[in-house]
Structure formats: structure tokens, C-alpha cells
Write a structure and sequence with these properties.
This protein is an alpha/beta fold. The protein is built from twelve helices and 13 strands. The protein is elongated, with a radius of gyration of 20 Å.
Length: 322
């Protein structure tokens, strides 16, 4: 019940492949949107554009490029899109936005679900981006402290908490720094679990099996999205509490999530893309910051791992899956 609304890579270094570039119509101008590493996360973006009357094959074409998420392949993919060229590059996450920035200073870039864009060097300021990049950020005030407070309230005995992050993603690195600063306030020992590629997840699971944490924090890192079903399954089988960043992971069987709605960020990215295709310059579109954060609990998962979440915590949730 809802209480309040608000890829995989291919082998080989720096290799990219176009997955689809939909046919152009005989009449009218076709707007081409370049996307690196398509996934189901992009569905709200495409749906929003359909609602804005962009139809594939009539006035819109997507160009999809697939990578293994390594910096070299991301740079190669971004350079390929810039050379086509496309009208807009839409980038999910800070690493892809940075790759697009390195590839072009002319083609508009809409960055979705990024870290602090000023600190990352993507824009000069949130209100006045000042270049060819705009978009939205996942970071809000004190979000890390709020995550740890929720975790301790829901799992009072959590003393050793693991953080699963991608060292190639500045957004997750920033969160790690904030976690290290905040963890002592909650009497938590933080364990770093690094995962860049698919093989890293086997090592991470082995590490958690031998050095069991009380809880695990995950992120919305694009390179991690394809592996989240395996992460959720591991936590469930090993009866470990998990706090995810996006609701979709809780619907899929994760225990809890706290963060901005990922689907809302993609829809917002589509709205910015529409404005740019209609003539607005990225520099005139302020970086959108989150105002609403969702707290979602899956009580079926709580029962499965033997966790009794206090009623006071359940009452604070925006959505409870029963």
C-alpha cells in the first residue's frame, strides 16, 4: 500500500556496438537520442517521451550503445555517439555523464541520477550549469545520516554494515566518504565491498559468506543494476538485512529502500530532453535536486529473514509491501 506519492558489457577493451537505431520516416525531422547501456531503468524515460508525442520511426530514433561499464568503453561509446552525431546524449550516472563530457562540448547532454555535479566537474553551478550539460542529481541534504538512522531503527542490532559500491563511480565514492564520517555516530563499523564488473560480485558474495555483516547498503549504480537480482537473492538466502536506494529493488524482494524515485528521475530527464529538442539550451536548465525521498519496506522479506521491524518504523514508511 502506498502512503505518499511524490549492462551488461561485451568482451574486449573499448569496444562498443550499436544495438538499435530505429528507422527514419520519409517526412519530418528525426531527433536522435544516444543512450549508453540500455536497461529497463530507461522505460520511464521512453514512456515520458511517448506521452510528449515522440514516436519512434516518425520523429524520434534511439541509438543504443553497449559497454562493459569500464572507463575505456564508456569513453569509446560516448565518442561514437558524438561522431554520428546525435541530437542529445542521455547519460545514466556520473561515469557516463563524464564520458559524454569528454566526448563533446557541443552536443547537449542530459545527465540522470548523478552525484554532486559541481564536485564532479560536470557543471559550474546547480542553478547555472554553464555548458552543454544539465540533468538531475540523487543527492540531498543529510541523506547518508538518514539512511543509517533508518537502518538502526529497523535493525537495532546492526553493528557491522557493509557498503556495496563501484569505485569507478564518483557518486558511490562520495557516499562512502559520508558513510565513514557518519558511521561512528551510530556505533557502526563500516565494511567496504567493491564491485566494478560481474566477476567482482562472486568475490563480494564469498567475502560476505566468510565475514558476515549485519546489514548491507546498496546503490543505484548503473553497472550494479543488472546484478541486483543476484544480490537480493544472496541477502535473502543468507538472512541478511539490506537497505537499497531504489524502490524497484524492494519490489523485487529487497528488504528496504530509502532514496529518490529512480523512475521519477528518468521521467524528469525526458522532460529536459524535450525542452532541449525544442530549442532550450542546457545552460538555461538548472540541475534538478530531489525534494521527495521514498522509504519502502517489504514485510514479506522481513519475515523471511527473521526480522521483526518495529511498528514505529513501519508507520514512517511511504509504502509497505505485505
Amino acid at each position: 500500500m502506498r502512503r505518499r506519492d511524490f549492462v551488461q558489457g561485451i568482451a574486449g577493451s573499448a569496444t562498443v556496438w550499436p544495438l538499435a537505431a530505429h528507422a527514419q520516416s520519409a517526412t519530418g525531422r528525426i531527433q536522435r537520442i544516444g543512450i549508453i547501456d540500455d536497461s529497463p531503468s530507461w522505460d520511464p524515460f521512453r514512456q515520458q517521451l511517448r506521452e510528449l508525442h515522440y514516436m519512434q520511426g516518425q520523429n524520434l530514433a534511439y541509438v543504443y550503445l553497449r559497454t562493459d561499464s569500464s572507463p575505456g568503453q564508456l569513453d569509446a561509446a560516448a565518442a561514437a555517439l558524438a561522431q554520428l552525431p546525435v541530437n542529445v546524449i542521455a547519460a545514466f550516472g556520473t561515469p557516463r555523464a563524464k564520458a559524454a563530457q569528454r566526448a563533446t562540448k557541443i552536443i547537449p547532454i542530459v545527465a540522470i541520477s548523478i552525484s554532486d555535479p559541481v564536485k564532479a566537474g560536470l557543471v559550474t553551478s546547480l542553478a547555472h550549469p554553464g555548458g552543454n550539460i544539465t540533468g538531475n542529481t540523487i543527492l540531498g541534504p543529510d541523506i547518508v545520516t538518514k539512511k543509517l538512522q533508518i537502518l538502526k531503527d529497523a535493525v537495532p542490532g546492526a553493528a557491522r554494515v557493509a557498503y556495496l559500491w563501484n569505485p569507478d563511480n564518483p557518486a558511490t565514492a562520495e557516499i562512502l566518504e559520508d558513510l565513514r564520517n557518519a558511521a561512528p555516530l551510530f556505533h557502526i563499523t563500516l565494511i567496504s565491498l567493491e564491485a566494478r564488473t560481474e566477476v567482482d560480485f562472486d568475490r563480494v558474495f564469498a567475502q560476505m559468506s566468510s565475514d558476515r555483516p549485519d546489514a548491507v547498503l546498496t546503490t543505484s549504480d548503473p553497472a550494479h543494476q543488472a546484478h541486483m537480482p543476484a544480490v537480493i537473492d544472496f541477502l535473502l538466502k543468507n538472512r541478511i538485512a539490506g537497505l537499497c536506494q531504489v524502490r524497484e529493488h524492494v519490489v523485487a524482494g529487497g528488504l528496504m529502500s530509502y532514496g529518490v524515485s529512480l523512475s521519477d528521475l528518468f521521467r524528469m530527464g525526458a522532460l529536459y530532453t524535450d525542452k532541449i529538442l525544442r530549442g532550450t539550451k542546457p545552460e538555461d536548465l538548472p540541475i534538478a535536486q530531489p525534494v521527495t525521498f521514498e522509504f519502502v519496506i517489504n514485510l514479506k522479506t522481513a519475515k523471511a529473514i527473521g526480522l521483526d521491524i518495529p511498528a514505529t518504523v513501519i508507520a514512517r514508511a511511504d509504502e509497505v509491501i505485505e
